Amino acid sequence: MKKLVNGLYAITPELPDSIALVRKVGEALAGGARVIQYRSKSTDMMLRRSQAGEIADLCRARDALLIINDSVELAREVDAGGVHLGRHDVEVATARLVLGSGKVIGVSCYNEMARARIAAAQGADYVAFGSFFPSATKPLSLRAGIEVLRIARSELALPVVAIGGITEDNAASLIAAGADAIAVISALFDAPDIEARARRLARLFQVPTCENQA
Question: According to the model, what pLDDT value does residue 2 have?
Fold first, then answer.
């Protein structure tokens, strides 16, 4: 059975020190992260395979979902829980053919509901929107308005992920607007106490929002 995409969705930072990276991921999981996305733009394939494999083992031990950014091949190689596809990656159908029906496929939709509708029709398991706030990881990324979360939540029978510049201070507004998960990089992995930060971010999903109380 596929794991649900919800709660704190932690995206790994670029870190060549594998020991430090795995330790950081472990702390995020201990604090309540439900999903880990391994994201690496390194051209060192041996490093990527090694890191993804170690994180895959850790996620299996912690019963967490591991998503691989961009690479369907790497996701298959380490038997990850799924893959996340961007604008220039393979189509959902191609990823499904390679990974099979039991894996999770997510799609970046930026600020485009049309792209989200297509992804849903093609069989994606979740859609992601952003950047909602200025992001150090992608400073030139397209900005999404919070209304896209409300529209996606009302139209699509899929989990909706919010990404981009998310912090403890602004995450609640995205959850209230309909985000099932918040994808966080810097605000989590740059924290002096990753486990404590993860716990506070994960706890935001346990607090009733104004919208849920209506």
Answer: 80
**pLDDT attached to residue 3:** 84
- Kindly name the residue from 71, 108, 131, 135 that is annotated as catalytic: 108
Place of tokens 């702390």: 27
Question: Is 39 a catalytic site residue?
Answer: yes
* pLDDT at residue 141, as a whole number: 74
**What burial class does residue 111 get, using C-beta atoms within 10 Å of its C-beta: 0-12 exposed, 13-18 middle, 19+ buried?**
middle
Set 138, 150, 153, 203: catalytic member: 138
- Out of 3, 18, 39, 199, pick the active-site residue: 39
Q: Which domains does the chain have, with CATH numbers?
A: 7-205 (3.20.20.70)
The predicted pLDDT at position 211 comes to: 44
Q: Which of 12-21, 61-70, 114-123, 128-137 has the lowest mean pLDDT?
A: 128-137
Contacts of residue 198, defined as CB under 8 A and 6 or more positions apart, other chains included, come to: 8, 10, 27, 28, 29, 30, 31, 32, 33, 188
- CA 196/CA 43 separation, integer angstroms: 32
